Amino acid sequence: MTTPDASSEKPTKITEVPPGIAPVVILVEPQLAENIGMTARAMANFGLSELRLVNPKNGWPKKGVREAASGATHVLDRATIHGSVAEAIGDLHYVLATTARERGQMKRVFAPEAAMGELVAREGQRNAVMFGRERVGLTNDEVSLADAIITFPVSPDFPSLNLAQAVLLVGYAWRQASGRAVLPFSGELLSPPATREALMSLFGSLETALDEARFYPPEKREIIARNMRDMLHRMSLTEQDVRTFRGALRALTRKGT
Amino acid sequence: MTTPDASSEKPTKITEVPPGIAPVVILVEPQLAENIGMTARAMANFGLSELRLVNPKNGWPKKGVREAASGATHVLDRATIHGSVAEAIGDLHYVLATTARERGQMKRVFAPEAAMGELVAREGQRNAVMFGRERVGLTNDEVSLADAIITFPVSPDFPSLNLAQAVLLVGYAWRQASGRAVLPFSGELLSPPATREALMSLFGSLETALDEARFYPPEKREIIARNMRDMLHRMSLTEQDVRTFRGALRALTRKGT
């Protein structure tokens, strides 16, 4: 039993972000199949597709990794295996190392968003983000091979971030920095907004109905009517809403006769 | 075997964000222990601590959930169980529903950052973010109980986001919107930057050494020297770096004599 909501295994076509644009993700000595699979899934969620594994513990491929990837098998199938960090980064131009703690190395330290801004500015170069072992992270020697550091603004009460969660945050930040963070749908009106004429006519009908129902004490009629107009304005009614509201009002007044 | 890098089970003290400030997280009919545990962990990473579960599938507590929480048991221990969304949200003032697809409901649709900006602006109210079932999300009826919608800017090639990953992104966005996204360490210089005097003296020593080593063709001496000064400037050397560099240069020139 591994992970979540596994979707079907039909192959994913990569059409949005061709390889070579998003950063390469390098996992150094990852141990758990769940983490590698969830890393692949998190990468695919945001358009990253190039995964490099440095000496995955207990061999490769790992049992359970495909299930944990939940359909992101195109990332796993293209993953490459390397014997050392030096070998894994040889062809790259700019490499960031993630670390949760200060290393006493004089490198620039970035939050994920600022780091991905740097990568996007280096368009055309081959860039990567490197993640360390589940328990102990990257060694100081491995960090020393990176150009700069990424760290995460975690709560000091509970700073331990899961490996695949860290990859997710970097992928998300890259998507935002690269201008691809478009929502799959918007909150556009399904019907045009009501004209002020339609709205004022609705106010009139409502107030007339309430007059007839003797809702208002006469001395408070004006102030209550204004408050109710306020309430209706706050609803940002559409044309369809006004029709629905009018229908409901008609039904209620019919019932009263 | 469940999840990642489980840390020790010593109780976590919540000192950074007292309950009542960060949004409540509501999981509706979550199925997998891994997802609930990883949700608790992701919440704790960013200072969220109030978890409500609506009808968790196959009962509660679930086997494996504590392991998946990897130490964030303070979130699980305080989690409350509810029979319906209506019951779970009764005492709240503003509720956001996460959904991956358009629902034909005329609600505002937010990216996580914008949504969390709304919540932060409602400080003092009790707010929540609601997440649906692993495979099918929230029902339209459940979404209709929310004030507005959050959706995620995922890749159209691979939009399926894991439940705990979605919680992580919301928690991260809340941390940023609430001004708490401080990095645990910075890239401050470990030694003061070198003065220009120290740097110019280093240029002088280096150029003298290279003159003596007959490195420069005479007609190119000036241009090469300027290029090397450029290289050294790009290093943003500290006082300590200049001392190290001078030492290395002395060692190299000693060797040559």
In short:
Two copies of one chain form a homodimer. Chain A is α/β, with parallel strands linked by helices and 257 residues long. Chain A has helices at 33-45, 65-69, 73-78, 85-89, 112-121, 140-143, 163-177, 196-212, 221-234, 239-255; strands at residues 24-28, 51-54, 80-82, 94-98, 108-110, 127-131, 148-150.
Characterise this structure.
Two copies of one chain form a homodimer. With 257 residues, chain A is of the alpha/beta class. The first copy, chain A, has two domains: 24-177, 3-Layer(aba) Sandwich (Alpha/beta knot), CATH 3.40.1280.10; 196-255, no CATH class. Helix content of chain A is 41%, strand content 11%. Chain A contains ten helices and seven strands. In chain A, strands 3-2-1-6-4-7-5 form a seven-stranded parallel sheet. In chain A, strand 1 (24-28), helix 1 and strand 2 form a beta-alpha-beta unit. In chain A, helix 1 (33-45) packs parallel to helix 7 (163-177), helix 5 packs across helix 7 (163-177) and helix 8 (196-212) runs parallel beside helix 10. Mean pLDDT of chain A is 92; it is low at 1-8. Chains A and B meet through helix 1, strand 5 and helix 7 of A and helix 1, strand 5 and helix 7 of B.
Basic shape of chain A = elongated
Tally of structural domains of chain A? 2
**Radius of gyration of chain A, CA atoms, in whole angstroms:** 28 Å
Amount of helix of chain A: 40-55%
